[in-house]
Amino acid sequence: MAELEAREAAAHARAEALRARIAELAEQLTAEEELLSRLGITRQMVLEILGGGDEHGSGVLEGADGGPGGVELDGDAGVRAALRIDGPIARAGLEGAPAAVGVGAVRVPQWQAGLEEAVLPVAYRDVLEVLADAGQPLRAKQIAAALGLGEEPRGVEGLRLKLKRLVKRGWLAEPAAGLFVRRTQPAESA
User: Fold this and answer.
1) Is the distance from CB of 70 to CB of 57 less than 8 angstroms?
2) Is 182 helix (H, G, I), strand (E, B) or coil?
3) Which of 164, 165, 144 is nearest to 155 (CA)?
4) What CATH class does 117-182 carry?
5) How many CA atoms, within 13 angstroms, populate the side-chain half-sphere of residue 94?
6) What is the pLDDT of residues 110-151, one digit of tens each?
7) What is the pTM of this model?
8) What are the distances in angstroms from CA 123 to CA 51, 63, 75, 118, 157?
9) Residue 27, phi then psi, degrees to nearest 5
10) What is the distance between the alpha carbons of residues 123 and 78, in angstroms, rounded to a whole number?
11) Among 12, 143, 156, 189, which one is least packed by beta carbons within 10 Å?
């Protein structure tokens, strides 16, 4: 029996170590996905700013095959050309460029009718998916567990900030203090 208990304790310790590693990897994955989202948005903005513009101020780089939103379809050649400091595209883009806006900040747009969840960063879309699957109001700790973030205060509080941001921007509702649910009715204008 003593040997069995020792093996059970060892297996329990290994399982706990694996759970901790999974939580750590999930946190790293979330950070990398947010970085990818920010880099994608930055790439789009660089292409739009340096590409000239139509009546909305967006466009594509000269000579680049552009797709929707001014994003180049044939690779990074246009981006490399645009990012040359001494190039005419860079000089033209810098002359009309607006002041820097929250570099590195994750942008969560205000909810509007017809606005798709795809405009949200991946971590925020994951939160909406968890709440949709739950079908009932959840607390930040429950959402964190469903996302695999663990129950450490650092992860839960970071998630709580995201939840509050989604409430403020109209994507979620907070029917009672600390309970979050997907908004089922159109958000009121802020």
Assistant:
1) no
2) strand
3) 144
4) mainly alpha
5) 10
6) 888 888 888 888 888 899 999 989 889 999 999 998 888 888
7) 0.44
8) 30, 35, 27, 11, 14
9) -65, -45
10) 30
11) 189
